[in-house]
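Incident log entry.

Two folding requests arrived from the same account within the same minute. Monitoring flagged them as a possible duplicate submission, but the sequences differ. Recording both here for audit purposes.

Request one:
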Amino acid sequence: MPHQSGPLPRQIHRLPGSSRPCRESMRRNAGRPSPGASLSSSVPTSRWNPVRGAARLSARDLALIASFAALIAALGLPGSLYLFGGAVPITLQTMGIMLAASLLGARRGALAVLVLLVLVAAGLPLLSGGRGGLAVFAGPTAGYVIGFLPGAFVTGWLVDRLLPRYSVGWGLLANVVGGIGVVYLIGVPVLQAVTGIGWGKALVTGAVVFLPGDAVKAIVATVVAAGVHRGYPAVHEVREPALNNSTVG
């Protein structure tokens, strides 16, 4: 008798006079793999899908995004202060941007800022001084308002690099680079273009005079974020590492 290679076929017993297989035979074959099935299908895969996971938001994520968008708006209630007759006001909302990014990470922090900007564009007076509407995105401060979004993303991205351990030094650096540097990088050129002032005056009135206050806000946001991460580490988004799917021969 020749040697038979490969998996043995399933034996299906049928009742006499019937074309249906008997139940006992079906129960015996229920747990057996089908002929030619690849063993690689039994290898566990990661639950994190980099494509679907990037777009999937839980109810908890949506609640956090809405809460921090409301926090940023609330920080504009004390109003704004214009120094030396400048066109750019001092506001506490930049600290809200740093807090949202430091606590929620790049994706959810940027989405919280995006929600705020969409509501402002719709006409809600959520910016400092009760400003709102599309005119905000065409004025001298448009670059700073638009810069909130990439600033929050960069801050959150830098914080993500170190988690689950949050370092005060690294968190402060992330707030300075994203919450101050990126916002200034977009805000100052737009201020110069809209007002027509020289670059030197734009740098002084649009950046230098705000550095001391923004530095204090970055320190406060870092200290608050460190305390929240220490007491409630689950607030930040955790992604599972991908597993290497290797085929078992």
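Request two (distinct sequence, not a duplicate):
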Amino acid sequence: MHVRLLCSIAVLLVAGIPSLSAQQATKDPPTAVLSGGPQVGNWAPQFSLPWANKDGIGPVGNPYELWRDRGKTVVLAFYPRDFTTGGTAQMRAFAERYDTLFGPDVVVVGINTDSLATHGRFAAKLGLPFRLLSDSGQQVARKYGSKGASGFPRRTIYVVGPDGRVAFRNLRFDETDPNDYAELGAAVRSARGS
């Protein structure tokens, strides 16, 4: 048993050396896909964050709290920044396809590190029909495996079912890929039971 384990470890180490050498030879920094955050079927970590929408900044004493939406399907969309090409494309697509992608009984929130003032301007410019949450220290992004090394969250999506459990996650959401939107729409419909 121990011999088999040691042999397996040795094979993995030897197999990893050529790829490491190839990476060093090209001077590219190593890349990794983080797989942290809650798995499908696990309870969604609770959080509370300040928010803004197209009408302005939400009341200080009334942050968005995930637990308040128990019984509803919730989409958590982590994205790096407002007013960037990718952030604008993703949030605009969410707004334009809101009724078909989510529906009126689904709660959608965008989450990144931008200030509430920036969120308010961004939401107003795009006419977003949902709130944008400010996670300035990436504490919530960390809970959801979405914390980026650059100081901004990675583009990830979670669908939380009415029972409070993660029904779907995409840790590498591509804002330009129609298949990612189709998968998200299917996951939302499944979580809603429709």
